[in-house]
Amino acid sequence: MGLQEFSRLPAAFQNAIQARRPFQCCREDIPVEILPTLGPDFQRQYELMMLEQRTANPVFCANQLCGLFIPPNNYRGPDTVVCPICEYSTCRMCRQPAHSGVCPADAEMQATVALSRRNGWRQCPTCRNMVEKISGCNHMSCRCGGHFCYVCGVRWGNCGHG
Question: Are 125 and 154 in contact (CB under 8 A)?
């Protein structure tokens, strides 16, 4: 690479960020580390853009004032992601502000909930795992350590079914 081509690299990496595409030469991604003069903040921004491009079904902050890409290491539980910039919580399924309960956009979980209702299964109020009573009393002891009534689904000792 000649001196003239090397002098164009900072602009090429900046254009790559603006275009939301990796900087390439001969169809190969060029690592931003080859140009340390760009600085650590620029390198982090470029690497975040590259992560966004590589992430299947990327999630963006539902906060309309933010809207930034949320890296997978900010996923909290199966459905919630937290923005590292504004700390706003977003639902991974419907991409709207985080909400309680099963997301209407989660078709598989909706089918599981419907199946559990048809079969009379209960969810542990502590960890939300499904429990099926085969025999015994209505006092359920979940593997998470939670105790609840199988008849009404509330924490054990808070109802009259005991």
Answer: yes
